[in-house]
Amino acid sequence: SDLDVEHARLGPFTDVYLLGAMLYEVLEGHPPHRGDTLHDILFSAYEGRVPSLADAVPAELVAIVRTALDPIPSRRFESVEHFRHAIEGYLQHRSSASLAAESHRLLDALRVDLREAPEDPADPVAQSIHRRFSECRFGFAQALREWPENREADEGLAEATLLLAGHHLDRGDAASAEALLAELREP
Length: 187
What we know:
Helix content is 71%, strand content 0%. The chain has eight helices and no strands. The longest helix has 36 residues, at 80-115. It is elongated. The termini are far apart.
């Protein structure tokens, strides 16, 4: 019957999509599907293209929105409960993600310092290298304490450690490089 066909088009996957659309609107300030006419809006939704989100939106939250708005219902969260668990997970470790993001900014500054590294250890740039490394190592380590599965923090800590170990090797200080490399979780 027509009622059965209509019921098959609706279900928990519909609720998940609507919640994803609401989350998108909260994050972006407008609904995911827009257009000049109602026809344009409906066509945008029909096409199922998931619009992009601002770069400032954390990657994990972007993944939640994209999963909820996936045009193929079977690839969305199984239920509203699964969607809720994904949001709760994000909320539980967002401070870890924030710490990792800040530590990556310090890592970028460390890379710049390493390119300009002077030979004189008393030079302010040389001192800045060790200060920045300590700050970013601490930030990544704290992020991992809060959320051990934080890949961004894990990869950032490894990269920072390898960069400074390479810096020590370039200066002939194998002992310091070896000590740093011993700290890596997976050498």
